[in-house]
């Protein structure tokens, strides 16, 4: 009877999901001996590393899973750590046979890669990207987000990925793999996660790198971070057409590009250039997002604080006879969008009925389709 009960406990415990790897701990080799004595289940598990940031949650979930089995009155959990050999075996399993530092998002990948770019800063590109990622995850998609704006990173703050000291959490290292922190279902990596303050009253460190270092950083984010199987990978690009834009064009020439602009000509004129550079690297401009569009006041009147028509102008300039570029969304100016971003809670979560949140949710609906397979050979062999 105890053996049968232990088997049920093992099944329940094994189904617990690792919050970083998002896979059952049984599949990850983290479950050890399980015995039942009387009504007490004694459960052994191992963590991937010493000081695993998810340790408390895993132990809590394991204890709850074991206690949920009928016939179990008490649970004792013994927590250990994987040996180097076990960790190496797990790393190999996560790579699924892919060599270290090989691009997992190449042309053969089914993950849709979307680079969100702009011609200039200050148009709300990062805010749009963060909220879009959360809205896509809310639709049940597996979403990853790379903060490629190395010099002006802001994604951790927008997603609330900050500790009590206002610092982004550092990724867990599993040998030569990095496990990205997760917020609102979005696996996220940013250079801000690797910077620290000199003193508690100092600002977070700044990044002053040139081309080769920027290229290497983006490359490592794409190859050394374990995102797992993703439906969508978003990249929050730095504004303009500099080193990172060129590097991403080289590393991900098959990526789709969404151009963010405000309605005013000063933003839309330069936004066109970012789309043209993306196209020169082989990437496909799939649409334009007009941010900070007209604000509707309580009396029903609309204030076009930043003018109007900029998104349509960018779309028209980037359209070609065989490839029309649509305006995917027009996101109205929104105090809630700004305030929620400062608070680290995306507006699509905090105020889903806000007009800006509604527009971003519709944008997610338009971009949630799978990556197209047209013109791509599939790895199939006749039997």
Number of strands: 15
Task: Give the overall shape, derived from the CA principal axes.
Answer: elongated
- Biggest β-sheet: strands ordered side by side in the sheet: 8-9-5-10-4-11-12-15
- What's the tally of helices? 12
Mean pLDDT: 89
Largest sheet: 8 strands, mixed
Low-confidence stretches: 375-383
What percentage of the residues does DSSP assign to strands (E)? 15-25%
Structural class computed from helices and strand pairing: alpha/beta
Reading the helices and strands in chain order gives HEEHEHEHEHEEEEHEHEHEEEHEHHH
Tell me what you see in this structure.
There is one protein chain. The chain is of the alpha/beta class and 383 residues long. 34% of the residues lie in helices and 21% in strands. The protein has helices at residues 2-14, 55-67, 84-95, 125-138, 155-158, 211-223, 243-251, 265-280, 310-318, 335-343, 347-350, 355-367; strands spanning 31-37, 40-47, 74-81, 112-118, 143-147, 172-174, 177-179, 182-183, 186-190, 232-236, 256-261, 284-293, 295-296, 302-303, 327-332. The strands form 4 sheets. An 8-stranded mixed β-sheet has the order 8-9-5-10-4-11-12-15, with helices on both faces. Strand 8 and strand 9 (186-190) form a beta hairpin.
């Amino acid at each position: 009877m105890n053996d049968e009960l232990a088997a049920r406990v093992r099944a329940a415990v094994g189904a617990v999901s690792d919050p970083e790897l998002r896979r059952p701990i049984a599949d990850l080799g983290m479950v050890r001996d399980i015995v039942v004595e009387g009504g007490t289940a004694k459960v052994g598990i191992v963590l991937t590393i010493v000081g695993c940031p998810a340790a408390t949650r895993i132990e809590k979930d394991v204890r709850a899973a074991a206690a949920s089995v009928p016939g179990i009155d008490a649970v004792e959990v013994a927590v250990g750590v994987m040996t180097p050999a076990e960790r190496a075996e797990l790393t190999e399993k996560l790579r699924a046979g892919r060599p270290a530092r090989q691009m997992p998002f190449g042309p053969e990948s089914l993950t849709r890669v979307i680079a969100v770019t702009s011609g200039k800063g200050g148009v709300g590109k990062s805010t749009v990207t963060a909220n879009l990622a959360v809205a896509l995850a809310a639709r049940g998609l597996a979403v990853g987000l790379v903060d490629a704006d190395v010099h002006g990173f802001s994604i951790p703050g927008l997603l609330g990925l900050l500790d009590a000291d206002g610092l982004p959490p550092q990724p867990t290292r599993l040998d030569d793999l990095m496990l990205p922190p997760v917020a609102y279902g979005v696996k996220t990596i940013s250079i801000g996660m690797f910077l620290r303050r000199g003193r508690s009253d100092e600002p977070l460190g700044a990044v002053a790198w040139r081309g080769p270092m920027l290229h290497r950083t983006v490359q490592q984010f794409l190859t050394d971070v374990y995102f797992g199987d993703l439906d969508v990978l978003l990249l929050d690009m730095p504004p303009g057409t500099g080193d990172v834009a060129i590097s991403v064009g080289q590393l991900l020439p098959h990526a789709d590009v969404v151009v963010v602009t405000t309605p005013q000509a000063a933003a839309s004129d330069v936004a066109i250039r970012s789309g043209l550079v993306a196209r020169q690297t082989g990437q496909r401009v799939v649409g334009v997002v007009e941010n900070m569009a007209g604000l509707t006041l309580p009396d029903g009147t609309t204030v076009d604080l930043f003018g109007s028509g900029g998104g349509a102008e960018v779309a028209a300039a980037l359209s070609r006879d065989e490839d029309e570029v649509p305006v995917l969304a027009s996101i109205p100016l929104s105090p809630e969008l700004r305030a929620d971003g400062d608070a680290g809670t995306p507006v699509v979560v905090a105020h889903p009925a806000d007009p800006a949140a509604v527009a971003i949710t519709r944008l997610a609906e338009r971009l949630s389709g799978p990556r197209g397979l047209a013109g791509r050979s599939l790895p199939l062999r006749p039997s």
